[in-house]
Amino acid sequence: MKTVFVTVGTTSFDELIERITSSEELKIRGYERLVLQVGRGSVLPAADSCSHVRLEAFRFKDSIAEDMRQADLVVSHAGAGSCLEALGAGKPLLVVVNDKLMDNHQLELARQLHMDNHLLYCTCRLAGLVFCISLVCVIPAWLAVPSQQVNI
Question: Would 150 be classed as within a structural domain?
Answer without folding.
Answer: no
